[in-house]
Amino acid sequence: MHSVKRIEVIANSVELGKILDSLKKSGVTGHLVIRNVAGQGLRGGSEDLDMTMLDNVYVIAFCAPEKLKGAVEIIRPILNKFGGSCYISDAMEIRSTRCVASL
After folding, report:
1. Among 37, 30, 25, which Cα is nearest to 5's?
2. Is residue 64 scored above 90 in pLDDT?
3. CB distance 13 to 38 below 8 Å
4. N or C: which end of the chain has fewer CB within 10 A?
């Protein structure tokens, strides 16, 4: 096991391409995208994600800690333009090199 950073971005689907490009440019190569995310923002009321006309996406990516700063610097302006949230947390990665086919 080794330490990694988990990057979670909730944003408007219009910005998905830019967010994924930003992750790639900063060296964060793997990601997961969940489309049509609904929920309520921290401010509540009219900020309800269900009330927007465009779909929202949820992006989860993991990276080495030294790549985090570059990723955040690129993603922040995108979120500032159309809104969205980005959360960073610590995680542990377990790499498995044992393939089922080799059993």
Report:
1. 30
2. yes
3. no
4. C
* 34-55 tens-digit pLDDT: 998 887 766 654 444 444 556 8
SS (H, E, C) 40-99: CCCCCHHHCHHHCCCCEEEEEEEECHHHHHHHHHHHHHHHHHHCEEEEEEEEEECCCCCC
Residues 6+ apart with CB under 8 A from 3: 65, 90, 91, 92, 93
Say how far apart CA 87 and CA 30 lie, in whole Å: 17
Question: Do residues 16 and 8 touch, judged by C-beta distance below 8 A?
Answer: no
Sorted by sequence, the CB contacts under 8 Å of residue 30 that are 6+ apart come out as 61, 62
- Cβ(91)–Cβ(62) under 8 Å? yes
CB burial of residue 89 (10 Å; 0-12, 13-18, 19+):
exposed
- In this prediction, residue 19 carries a pLDDT of 94
